[in-house]
């Protein structure tokens, strides 16, 4: 039952991390306008993400525009799009693999094969976390490098947006959940006796008087 608890906890963490990764992918706040020197007081703030850019006025009005051309985007944005979407899809596949190998399901017969399927699901979640971590760190490195680059005008400097922090938290949850899934599956490897106890009760049979038999069948 200890390994089953690890699998359930790991799956919950992975699902939360998957949701956070989807949120980070869709949010336009990958980089936010930096307020420096004479740019401290400004009438608008610019957000840039993978799919759109938004301009927020000081009055609270926000206007967003989806990028018109994919080929016109920078290399880092195109790569971040591809890697992030791939990570989201990989997590979707890992969910079904993990559910098939989980001890609480009957998709695969209990035994070493079932444990190996669960282990595969945990490994897929680990790969998903690593795959999502690459564009996040790459994008953050570009933002930081341009921030400290004196040749970049102050008005064009950006800071790390909230989407990057959400993405980092999501990757941490995915990798932590993947590790728990791997640990739970590793405990079950070679232990076919480790599974949820299932008890079946026979249906009550009517007696000669028409009443049901009160005996309990297990």
TrEMBL record:
**PROSITE patterns for this protein:** CLAUDIN (PS01346)
Transmembrane residue ranges = 79-102, 123-144, 164-189
Keywords assigned by UniProt, alphabetized? Cell junction, Cell membrane, Membrane, Tight junction, Transmembrane, Transmembrane helix
Q: Could you name the Gene Ontology cellular component terms for this entry?
A: bicellular tight junction; plasma membrane
Record GO terms (molecular function): structural molecule activity
Q: Give the way it sits in the membrane.
A: Multi-pass membrane protein
Domain of life of the source: Eukaryota
Query: Where, per UniProt, does this protein localize?
Result: Cell junction, Tight junction; Cell membrane
Family of this protein:
Belongs to the claudin family.
Q: What does this protein do?
A: Claudins function as major constituents of the tight junction complexes that regulate the permeability of epithelia.
User: What's the protein here called?
Assistant: Claudin
The species this protein was found in: Homo sapiens (Human)
């Amino acid at each position: 039952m200890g390994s089953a608890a690890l699998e359930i906890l790991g799956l919950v963490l992975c699902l939360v991390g998957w949701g956070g990764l989807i949120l980070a992918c869709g949010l336009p706040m990958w980089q936010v306008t930096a307020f420096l020197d004479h740019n401290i007081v400004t009438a608008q703030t610019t957000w840039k993400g993978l799919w759109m850019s938004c301009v927020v006025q000081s009055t609270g009005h926000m206007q967003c525009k989806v990028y018109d051309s994919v080929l016109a985007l920078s290399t880092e944005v195109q790569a971040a799009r591809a890697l992030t979407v791939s990570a989201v899809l990989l997590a979707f596949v890992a969910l079904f693999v993990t559910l098939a190998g989980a001890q609480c399901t009957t998709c695969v017969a209990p035994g070493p094969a079932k444990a190996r399927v669960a282990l595969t699901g945990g490994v897929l979640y680990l790969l998903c976390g690593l795959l999502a971590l690459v564009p996040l760190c790459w994008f953050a490195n570009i933002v930081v490098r341009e921030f400290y680059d004196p040749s970049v005008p102050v008005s064009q400097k950006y800071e790390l947006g909230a989407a990057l922090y959400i993405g980092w938290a999501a990757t941490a949850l995915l990798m932590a959940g993947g590790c728990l899934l791997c640990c739970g599956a590793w405990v079950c490897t070679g232990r076919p006796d480790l599974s949820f106890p299932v008890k079946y009760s026979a249906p009550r049979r009517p007696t000669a008087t028409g009443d049901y038999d009160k005996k309990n069948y297990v």
